[in-house]
Amino acid sequence: MAIRSEHSRQAILDATMKLLDGREPDSVTVQQLSIERIAREAGVSKTTIYRWWTNKAAVIIDTFLESHILSTPVREDLPAIDALREHAVALASLYSGHEGRLMAQLIAESQYDPATLDEFKRHFWQPRRDAVGRVIARGQAEGSIRTGIEASLLADAIYAPIYFRLLFQEGELTPEAIRAQLNVIFDGIATPQDAAQVAH
To answer: 3-state DSSP: the chain helix, strand, coil percent, rounded to 5?
Structure first.
């Protein structure tokens, strides 16, 4: 039964990704997607979907969360500023493609659907923000990032340019553009002994 259940769960995730692919003839937007459509594509009942997820937003987030985390790691084995730079550049690169369009649609839907907003914040945004916050706190403990600045505020400062460019389509989501933006931020948060190494 466990194997069958996991097979159904994966079929649901695969069906959701296919429907949101954007390159398939029967693709739909996040707004157009429904639990009924996912169930039909996956060959399962709506009850099966609700066994694992409370709503459509939860299915969508789980669909690309695993690949998102693998593509945009927040590494613990790098110096803090290097880890933050690598994460932000990888995120911008990911959002310059199809995943960025999906994310923009999901954020748009969350503005008028409280359930979507709650799922997005609890299962996607807050865990990623916390992971970046831990790297910032590590950098402060190691002496590469100035203390006295709240880690969550610095995390917001790192993410803000990426999501601004994604949602308003103002400026490029290229590695070069994001590195330049990050250098402005890191120049302000680096301790004096590390400031000279920021712009690289």
So the answer is: 70, 0, 25
Distance CA 160, CA 17 (A): 26
Domains and CATH numbers, the chain: 6-52 (1.10.10.60), 58-190 (1.10.357.10)
Q: Which amino acid is at 27?
A: S
Cross-strand pairs, 190: 145
Half-sphere exposure of residue 129: CA atoms within 13 angstroms, side-chain side: 18
Residues in the chain: 200
Average of per-residue pLDDT values in the chain: 88
Q: CA-to-CA distance for 62 and 55, rounded, in angstroms?
A: 11
Q: Say if residue 85's pLDDT is above 90.
A: yes
What are 116-147's pLDDT values in tens digits? 899 899 999 999 999 999 999 999 999 988 88
